[in-house]
């Protein structure tokens, strides 16, 4: 027999109101002056944009990259990026022709739309910081996807070489859409920043594509690797605690993490493959094996074990390192969110930014080919330009 359910009218109204409120939560949370994005927006928006600031006297700047869906892999076409910035004096300068409703954004404001491959490019002038303040110089970007998701802002673009961008400010970043840090390359008089955007990443209330539970380990594609100091038992920095990202962050790097469930036979296969890749790519690839000592082995035993692996495999390029634990705060590895329970975590980074990630990847020939292709595909268009 079915039991009849009775609801008090006030409770029922409250319940329905709460459900409606939850279903209409704004994606991205509060966004002051979100409507400014649409004021003056042209009907046709190209994938390559030159801002009004390009004609200013100052450092010319190109920001270019790919916009990806939340998986960090699938390119996202037809995504609008609205941006505004200060001029070379640190002011949001006004102009007579500017719609005064958006005067607080200044005249250096514009739009760019990703092409069919998710690519975009912005030519502008490098902004100056606000006068007499300690905020780093920055550019404000916001996103409108080609769907019914409302516009939302992502992390401001800031500059890695800006002395105002302190460690504390880096750690406080939300990584909305990925890291906002621009790492600059120099080509003649032009500074170039390769910068990818990940839709929905760290955006509150963003729709979840599916509820499939998969193993999780490491920071997200699009975020920066956080510097940490493992002990080097084998390799160029043998006998020291050296941060891989700080010392070798310019080109591509691979961080190969293993923890509680290490399969040492597979480790050897991976190391042989990665050593070969290191020789082929020379200075453009650095590889670090990082063991999380979750089983509390003695340092002497662990160092001896890693030395034996390095010697047996005749490793000349790869660094074999370890940290006391992936949750350890002393080495600061904890901020990279490595899961010690998975068999392995591979992070591929370029200029300190995560461009690919694999979890529980076995060293089959198919996966080795996949890994090599991923290294090739994530080089970018300006890989060989100096900083």
From TrEMBL:
Signal peptide: none
Domain Intradiol ring-cleavage dioxygenases: start-end pairs: 55-166
UniProt key word Acetylation: no
GO molecular function: ferric iron binding; oxidoreductase activity, acting on single donors with incorporation of molecular oxygen, incorporation of two atoms of oxygen
UniProt keyword list: Dioxygenase, Oxidoreductase
Statement: the UniProt record of this protein carries the keyword Iron: no
InterPro entries in the cross-refs: Intradiol_dOase_C, Intradiol_dOase_core, Intradiol_RC_Dioxygenase
Pfam families reported in the protein's UniProt record: Dioxygenase_C (PF00775)
Highest taxon listed in the record's lineage: Bacteria
Record-stated family: Belongs to the intradiol ring-cleavage dioxygenase family.
Protein name: Intradiol ring-cleavage dioxygenase
Lineage: Bacteria, Pseudomonadati, Bacteroidota, Cytophagia, Cytophagales
